[in-house]
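Observation: inputs received (chain + beta-D-galactopyranose).
Thought: call the complex predictor directly.
Action: predict_structure
Action Input:
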Amino acid sequence: MNLTRRTFVAGSAAVLAGTLTACTAERTADYYRGANGGDGALIGVSMPTKNLERWSRDGENLKSLLEDLGYVVELQFADNKVEQQNSQIQTMINKSPAVIVVGSIDGSALGPVLETASGLGIKVIAYDRLIRDTKAVDYYVTFDNYNVGALQGRYIVDALDLDHTAGPFNFEPFAGSPDDNNARFFFAGAWDVLTPYISSGKLVCPSGKLPASVDDWQSIGIQAWSNTTAQAEMENRLNSFYSATTRVDVVLCPNDAIALGVGQALDSAGYGGSDWPVLTGQDADQANVANIVNGKQSMTVFKDTRALGERCVTMVDQIAQGRDVEVNDTASYDNGALVVPSYLLDPVTVDAGNVRQILVDSEYYTAEEVGL
Ligand code: GAL
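Observation:
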């Protein structure tokens, strides 16, 4: 590692502040480059929480991929607390990283701190979740979020054979965290696929918890994607609107944490075997994949965190080496202040039919880990 760089990184915040003021957005590749190509530059990685399996995996994966390339990584998890994420990012800025990668908690709450970063020439990559309402975000790397919801919707259509059956089926929708920009895309994707069947009366919603329009998705959002909040909400719906004769047939769960909570509510209400509803999910968390294997969850949308990590690391490296940064979408993600150049990856549906092929053969899990 470049000694000068090490000294620089280890310097006091006061000295850094002075030095940083002199650095402008015009930092050059030489600034980042250490003795071994891209080696030695500091990269900040700010993840929302360790409590959801996917984020814990994402953080550790990014760290090890970046370290493999010789970068120095400061990885922080913010316990789903917006204030904590803000102050962790500020601390990173004080250490003068080349790039900060952010999986935001509240996509609209990071503008000021990231504007500080941007003013110092530090590049910002929004990881998985878009950062909104600020120009201080350079790139976005994510999966095709709308398509995640569309895959969930299409799975429901096929599983209930909605094109060839009259129904009606009792349908309960959930949406993700109201402060997460992705949650809207997930809901919109599912909504667009399912609305024709709702309009034709094949899907009915006994609880009435059907948003009036896609713009009203937050009315059924589960704050922080909490499985316990989802469980309580599902228990309420089951207690108030369902009975031994009125059974729920299908639940749109936007991610696996919510599917787990909903599954627990169904368990306690005595669902099981043939009356277990169609249940969607997202993230391929281990417990959920085991549930797919044992029949307690119908599907999940797999977003390979290894691929997302690799793409993000490629972006970091391209930035740090002063090369062109590859993107494949320059139209979809308007954050309210600019259209953020994005790289979108493809999500994949996993169910009992392909779980081994997609998750075990690719060594994401061992067969034992998911009960195969
Ligand atoms: C979303 C993310 C999903 C899911 C959810 C809960 O932003 O795209 O994969 O993990 O947050 O953390």
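Thought: report the result.
Final Answer: Residues 1-26, 33-37 have pLDDT under 50 and may be disordered. The chain has two domains: 3-137+305-345, 145-303+350-370.
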